[in-house]
Amino acid sequence: MGYFYVVPMLFLCYFMASFSTSSRDIRSDQSTLLAFKAHVTDPHSVLTQNWSMSYPICSWVGISCSSRHHRVTAFNLSAIGLEGTIPPHLGNLSFLVYLDISDNNFYGHMPNELAQLRRLKFINFSNNKLSGSFPSWIGVLSKLQRLSLSNNNFSGLIPDSLYNLSRFGNLHTLMLDSNKFTGRLPENIGNWSKLSFLYLGDNYLQGMFHLAPLLEAYLSLHFCRTHII
Ligand SMILES: *[C@@H]1O[C@H](CO)[C@@H](O)[C@H](O)[C@H]1NC(C)=O
Ligand SMILES: *[C@@H]1O[C@H](CO)[C@@H](O)[C@H](O)[C@H]1NC(C)=O
Ligand SMILES: *[C@@H]1O[C@H](CO)[C@@H](O)[C@H](O)[C@H]1NC(C)=O
Ligand SMILES: *[C@@H]1O[C@H](CO)[C@@H](O)[C@H](O)[C@H]1NC(C)=O
Ligand SMILES: *[C@@H]1O[C@H](CO)[C@@H](O)[C@H](O)[C@H]1NC(C)=O
Ligand SMILES: *[C@@H]1O[C@H](CO)[C@@H](O)[C@H](O)[C@H]1NC(C)=O
Ligand SMILES: *[C@@H]1O[C@H](CO)[C@@H](O)[C@H](O)[C@H]1NC(C)=O
To answer: Long-range contacts: 120-125, Cβ < 8 Å, 24+?
Structure first.
């Protein structure tokens, strides 16, 4: 007799649980974006005007969400004059796939919290004033396909954890040109199966390279200002 009650009740509980979970998660993404907005300087009032609580965050400029989970998947705030450090809160956007803050005036270090973003495929921090060393946690981002740190003030050695990315085999583009990187490059960098674009010019790197033929063509174009010893 009770059987007929049990099944619909379970279904209802499941439905309510999944509904409340997803609305809580989009609220967590919203508080992350609001923390970001409060943290940075926005001289052209782009976020001040557009990132309004009266509209859903998925309609905010630079933000895209997945249709399935309704979570933020792209954070694309390129070339709008933003200034400040990168707030660690971004590490809470756990569904993020694209992160592009190129062509702004961000300075300081890349926060370690970004290592939590395990779905990232695309990072572009080019053309800012970021400094510090190459983040060794890059080696845990197994899905990473394109990484651009060009034209910043990064310094120090390129860490061995970059080898990890070669093992995962997804890295397609690596742009590190116009920084102050020093030391030797991984010697087998030319053997990385998917790597097609490698920009290293205008640094203080040295080393011997065993290059795949395709890669060699690009290196000769973009290596010209590297100080090779
Ligand atoms: C914010 O920008 C997006 C994308 O440019 C636009 O579609 C939307 O209408 C803007 N919202 C407001 C409130 O200005
Ligand atoms: C970010 O926006 C710019 C300008 O709209 C566009 O060219 C670029 O492809 C976008 N990047 C991503 C990762 O969506
Ligand atoms: C988001 O990240 C910040 C800094 O990493 C942390 O202090 C905060 O508790 C997190 N907030 C949420 C809602 O997860
Ligand atoms: C990163 O952004 C810069 C400036 O917006 C652009 O020139 C570069 O091609 C981008 N890198 C990738 C891998 O898309
Ligand atoms: C390399 O990847 C593995 C597997 O994802 C991870 O456990 C490890 O911490 C990574 N090592 C480095 C140096 O990034
Ligand atoms: C770049 O980094 C160096 C230290 O590596 C520092 O002395 C210099 O002031 C930085 N320049 C800018 C423009 O941030
Ligand atoms: C690169 O790959 C080739 C062929 O698979 C191999 O003979 C060579 O030893 C490798 N070089 C390095 C530096 O790993």
So the answer is: 120/96, 120/144, 121/97, 121/145, 121/146, 121/170, 122/97, 122/98, 122/146, 123/99, 123/147, 123/148, 124/78, 124/99, 124/100, 124/148, 125/101, 125/149, 125/152
